[in-house]
Write the structure tokens for this entry.
Amino acid sequence: MFKKILVANRGEIAIRAFRAAYELGAKTVAVYPYEDRNSTHRLKADEAYQIGSVGHPVRAYLDVSEIIRVAKESGSDAIYPGYGFLSENPELAEAAKAEGITFIGPSSDVLEMAGNKVIAKDAAIRANVPVLKSTQSSANVDELLDQADAIGFPIFVKAVAGGGGRGMRRVAAKEDLRAALVEASREAESAFGDARVFLEQAVLRPRHIEVQILADTHGNVVHLFERDCSIQRRNQKVVEIAPAPLIDEDLRNTLYRDAVAFAKAIGYQNAGTVEFLIDTVGPNAGKHVFIEMNPRIQVEHTVSEEITDIDLVQSQMRIASGESLADLGLSQETIQRHGFAIQCRITTEDPAANFRPDTGKITTYRSPGGAGIRLDGGTVSTGVEVSPHFDSMLVKLIAKGRDFKSAVIRAERALAEFRIRGVSTNISFLQAVLADETFQSGDLSTSFIDERPQLFTAAPSQDRGTKILSWLADVTVNQPNGPRGDHFSPSTKLPSVDLTKPAPEGSRQQLLKLGPAGFAKALREQHHVAITDTTFRDAHQSLLATRIRGRDLQMIAPYVSRLTPQLLSVEAWGGATYDVALRFLGEDPWERLEVLRAAMPNLCIQMLLRGRNTVGYTPYPTEVTEAFVSEAAASGVDIFRIFDALNDVEQMKPAIAAVLKTKTAVAEVALCYTADLLDPQEKLYTLDYYLNLAQQIVDAGAHIIAIKDMAGLLRPAAAAKLVGALRDRFDLPVHLHTHDTAGGQLATLMAAINAGVDAVDVASAPMAGTTSQPSASALVAALAHTERDSGIPLESVTSLEPYWEAVRSVYAPFESGLPGPTGRVYKHEIPGGQLSNLRQQAIALGLGDHFERVEDMYAAANEILGRPTKVTPSSKVVGDLALHLVAVNADPKDFAENPQNYDVPDSVVGFMAGELGDLPGGWPEPFRTKVLQGKNLKFGITPVAEQDLQLLNGTDSAARRSTLNRLLFAAPTKEFEKFREIYGRLDQVDTVDYLYGLQAGHEHVVEISKGVQLFVGLEAIGSPDAKGYRTVMATLNGQLRPINIRDRKIASDVVSAEKADAANLGHVAAPFAGVVTLQTVEGAHVEIGQPVATIEAMKMEATITANVSGVVRRLAISKTQAVDAGDLIVVVEPAAS
């Protein structure tokens, strides 16, 4: 036996050879290029030497002179080539022989003969082995093209010195042949240093079966049975099986006989493989043809080892050292076959990206084990960097079983055990292959994968742990909501209630029993005041920018359903919650609705519906409204509060009709209240106006009349007057919603109750007051022991308050900034929900210290725009104009008289054009005409595409929901989908962790599903690298997990923006901070007022126009760029006057 063996290879086959050499008592030598210095095979050898030059890692393994140099330097007496690289190159065998070093493999002559597929074919013919029709080899494309017709199509292009599918193409038609020849020849030259290729007849739906040969130097040849290698992609083997299932025994024995005959005919020595194709269809079905001999060990040799208990690599070494098969204890009679073995090649190839090899760092590696499982790995362990230079294979999985079925089951189990993170893998693809019924039956062919495109879209591992950890690490590093501080989980404040007992019957059972009309009639007839809890939606929309996560609502919902079953409803969905869930929280609003429905089975869930806008900001076709309402009702909404921003009943009718069509849901239709109907000077929003509006609402089919007082302007006496008049005129129940912005709305509720209002809205005390609703406990206490007692125990209401107080504390970064009530609301009339959001917008635009000016400008904008009722989306229009007037320091009076001299926000232009409908008091003229002059307006209801219409009208709920998300909020839905793709579902992450990140020395628990927990910890945060990335060393289930996170607080290559000269009319400046998109090019001629760019900030978009007529001489920014107020956008050279 050899004393020292150099392995001229890398990765798993090098390690395989080292293991065999160790067992034989030989020392081992590894070679590696600089780029491969961290490969595991270098560490497994007794000695290792660098070869090649830096920058050419693959070339190094193909350099014969370098291999020989190291062999001599290290004193190696044998070279083992493995497979690939130089394994079939006769030059290495010849060079080793010249230096007196044994090449572990066939002689150079045999390599030349067997490795050359054309010469090998001639040898097969001489051995009476059936072969395919083919051409002579050549690197001349035209020469090969001329010979193609004699063979016919389909046809194969094959490299003379090929292997592993490289240099091989299947061509269906002659017009595609030239390109295939050029590609294959180039690939062959790159991989093997030989550009010659040849053409060969293609077999119809073939099986690829190869026979393992072992031959000594004394003329003895045996076979180790066959392997089925039919599962291939682009002629690259994916799954290998030994022995081949579903094969005729006569054919099996014929393959053995022909393989041995061929090996003997060429005087073969050492291990090799004789490969055959077998037609499975057509006139030649069941017939085999020889295709080639691989004069080396193959990747799939492992399955032959498993079914024969023969170590092929050791056998190679022993035969090369002069031992005979008899010395090895081998003869054909004594070689027995046991069971079945399956090999799966685990690679970093991404099936969803056309098997593009992935690179990067392996952050987690957990391997399978147990009975019947073997792993042959190369460079695969946690922390290893997967190089782009070499083969994408990570590890070979070999599963053995008593029969084919048990081997498949074991392979499936082992694949499921793998956890490889940091790089993409083909594991999901392999799982899909093994799960295929045809595969399990053993009916295989080389077209198996091509015939099953669904294999490429098999769901990959969810990798939930890594995704969740990535979010937590990002938040930990960047602290978008500030430091973690001493926040605690609100769950510790949940009341003591036995949740194992079902919730008592409540309003939902009454609705199901009586139906919508009967439910409304009973509401009108009952004497106690019905109460709706808005804490789940409008309260946190008004106070916390709608940021409360579904998790925190779901947690308290079962307690609300058991402690306060007397509630009329819980307002928990619709309005801004839909948009914000998608845009900011990474939540699907439909999923939120489902979990709340399940958590509160006894209470009616109420939503806010913006008429035919549904939950969007613009009108949608009736088909969208109907589909939305239908899906919402089916998913859990019982009461739809429907409104229109301008009190236009025609805009509400499609939504009302859609709700009535369900026959299960209640249509509560709102009149939006503004101004002061008691004011003798009020000529527009009078009692008659509201009563006429209510009449239209009743005529449209409403079950309940709602008063929607968005800004808290409804004063006690006005409430008594309005409620009393509605009760006197109509038989429908009246439901009052208000905001406590000025602090006196409890009095308004009591006045309305005394006047006969049937239901009112309140919020849990910690989430009540100011821009939210009045306090629930205050109202319940005020009504206790009176004729209109709500019937809700005060103790039940107050027991929920500690939880909501804790929740509000956790969400402190999203507070509106309104420290207490403000009477200024009676002047500016800003709705409660918008008042908090407007503050955040003002801060983002650098106007946070001038909010009083914003309020004043809001009041002015309201007058300029014709005093519309202000609720989303009309309130947004008024807010956009107010912010714009403050930003450009405009005089409201001058703006109203000369709007053509200003950049008018796009929302204002659309509003004036009637995008949201007609104003109750008519259009403000001549302001409207001036704003619209010269504008190219494009708006209206876009019809639904036929494909989307089918999805909306279909029975697939998931498809309907995703279609609605996309139609209503295209951009936020994309953001949501991207968020889910990157971070997965974060519903089960505790909110303190979600908002503030990880805490060193603390174990964070995330229960991702029932009985499945992740234990997460923070070890350390590294210093930023040159690109601003930090390595967060975290632990996941006790294992270190490094995560690279971009620290967005670190700026790099900061370029100071150029400022516009206010005195230069040719300088076009950004009116405020935002993202600008250019709409002009250098050299373009522009007129005064012509748009040159648009700017977006928060939810506001405006057009930036030229101040003078002239030619655009310079663009000061890129196509789309973030800017600050006053930054130069475009330079216009004024035209000569």
In short: The two ends are 99 Å apart (CA to CA).
